[in-house]
Design goal:
The protein is of the alpha+beta class. It folds into three domains: about 5-80, no CATH class; about 85-205, CBS-domain; about 220-300, 2-Layer Sandwich (Uridine Diphospho-n-acetylenolpyruvylglucosamine Reductase, domain 3), CATH 3.30.465. The chain is built from twelve helices and twelve strands. About 20% of the residues are buried.
Length: about 300
């Protein structure tokens, strides 16, 4: 990044969004006077105005390259995300029961290779803390495996409401030096986990480390021009963005949950209904288990 770009980025993040928007907007030249009671609404409007002008304004190319421009846009759009939009859902979370045999727990931890593991007591909705794997191995090295006290090693859980704004959550996690948040719904039920890495990936894209397994099949796999095989946990927003669709997003988050809501039950038997039509889109469950729709086919009708 040259000096000109560096100065632009520094100035950009140090200026209120409303001021930046009024300077760069090519659509509106009037100055906005923010009334205190309307400040949040005005800031949101100014932000949206700036994002649109920032992405379209040819002058931006003089200051930032495509990668930098995309990153700045993603940072601004963090304000629209909630914890539930970024979290790993509970069905994909590796967690351990404090009541299990210590040997079995260690075998699972070694196999899964996570550095932090949620711990629950009998029921996964009863999360009691987070286990740092390094703490476990430090105890194991001292001697008898049976003397390892997991309850004494688990750390205080950091609970986060599923609708907490991501930008505020990132600031809090950095301030408190917390790497994992346990997401809960309005009833206190466990819905998933979220890490700082998950939030950073919303800005810079996916970050793979040496332990990440490459995905053999993408979440959205093209079968033909109008037919796609989709992972049931894929967000409806991602499906809409990728395939230029307008599937409803107000009630459910994932494409599998959307189909399940239309069907009314998981189609475990051949006689069960497995197909639903929403507008010009047909969804069909092709792989399921007792808990969810794993894969489905999406067909776009003319």
């Amino acid at each position: 990044m040259d000096d000109g770009v560096g100065r632009f980025i520094k100035n950009f993040f140090n200026r209120p969004v409303g001021i930046v928007a009024s300077n760069w907007s090519t659509k509106k030249k009037t100055t906005r006077i923010t009334v205190p009671d309307d400040r949040e609404r005005q800031e949101e409007s100014a932000k949206e105005e700036f994002i649109n002008s920032f992405e379209d304004d040819e002058r931006m190319k003089l200051y930032v390259n495509d990668f930098e421009r995309n990153m700045i846009t993603r940072v601004l759009k963090l304000y629209d995300l909630r914890a539930r939009d970024v979290m790993i859902p509970r069905t994909s979370v590796f967690a351990v029961d404090i009541n299990d045999d210590i040997t079995d727990i260690l075998d699972e931890i070694i196999e899964e290779r996570y550095s932090r593991v949620p711990v629950y007591d009998k029921d996964i909705d009863n999360i009691i803390g987070v286990l740092h794997v390094k703490d476990v191995f430090a105890q194991v090295r001292k001697g008898n495996l049976e003397l390892v006290n997991l309850r004494g090693l688990i750390r205080e859980p950091y609970f986060v409401h599923e609708y907490k704004p991501i930008d505020k959550l990132l600031i809090e996690m950095q301030r408190d030096r917390t790497h994992m948040g346990l997401i809960i719904d309005e009833y206190g039920g466990f819905t998933g986990i979220l890490t700082i890495e998950d939030i950073i990936e919303e800005i810079v894209g996916d970050i793979d480390d040496e332990d990440d397994e490459p995905e053999a099949i993408p979440e959205i796999q093209r079968i033909s021009d109008t037919t796609f095989r989709i992972d049931g946990l894929t967000s409806i927003s991602d499906v809409n963005d990728t395939l230029n669709l307008d599937l409803p997003t107000g009630i459910t988050e994932t494409i599998g949950a959307l189909l399940l809501g239309e069907l009314g039950k998981i189609p475990l038997e051949d006689k069960d209904k497995s197909r639903a039509v929403i507008g010009n889109v047909e969804l069909k469950a092709i792989k399921v288990n007792e808990k969810r729709i794993i894969n489905l086919l999406l067909k776009i009708k003319n």
